[in-house]
Every structure is written in structure tokens, then in C-alpha cells.
Amino acid sequence: MPSRSGINVCYGTAIDWVLTDPVCCSWEGFRAYVTGAAPVTVSAFAWDYNLDQLTPFGTPIVIGPNVDGSGQPPNARVEFGTFTGVDPALLVKVSFRSDLPFTIDDLGYGGTAGIPEPASWALLIAGFGLTGAAARRRRALAAAPQSA
After folding, report:
1. Residue 68's pLDDT band (boundaries 50, 70, 90)?
2. Which of 48, 99, 113, 119 is most buried by a 10 A CB count?
């Protein structure tokens, strides 16, 4: 099945994108373009730190045949998390399932930049303070009368 961008990222009937270490990192969002001749069910999973396990994120999306009304095989973009404009998720797994082979391309994951840690803010403020102090000292030295 030809892909939308001309480059097949993945082709099959059961495809999972999984992070190997869900506790240390995650995706804030996930998006992909799916092309196939049969319905494709897309499910996202987030890491629940309280239960220490994967939990479903939102409702699975079913991309059905002829979703665009053109009579062609379904071609649809699926999005979860920050790519949908909602709060970021801690996505660690996205599953694609279908009875017939399909293609995934134009894959994107990540999301928005995170909020800096307090230590990063402290370092930034300290840097501004040191820069200001150096500028003030330099100005005071330049204004001081020169002795002969």
C-alpha cells in the first residue's frame, strides 16, 4: 500500500510504538497518518505512576474505510496528547490494529517544551544577577578618577 509521503515508516496489521523505559521518559503527544483498506484501531497508553502500569489514554480512534467519502481507502491523521490541543499526556505506547495491512507515515511524537525545573530558574536568575553585578562594577571602575 503506498504511503502518503512516499516513504513507508511502517507497514503491517499490528504495530506498536513503545518506549523501553516508561518511568524516565514519555511523549507529550503522538501523531501519524494512516493509510489502509480496512478499519484501523489506534489506541494510546499512558503510564500511571500510582498503579505503576500502562493505562488507556482517551478513547481508541477507529479509522474506517472511505472516511473521506471519496471511495478511496481510508487516509486519516490520528493525534493524541498535545497534538490535539489538550493537556500533555505521558504517552508510552501507541497501538495500531487492523485485519488488513496498512501503512503509517508522517509520524510525529514529542510535543511542547516542558516547564523548566526550579534549579534551572535559579541558575538563570543567578546568571542575570552576576551579569548585572559585573556591569555595575565595570561602570564604577570606568567612572572612578584616575590617579597620576
Report:
1. low
2. 48
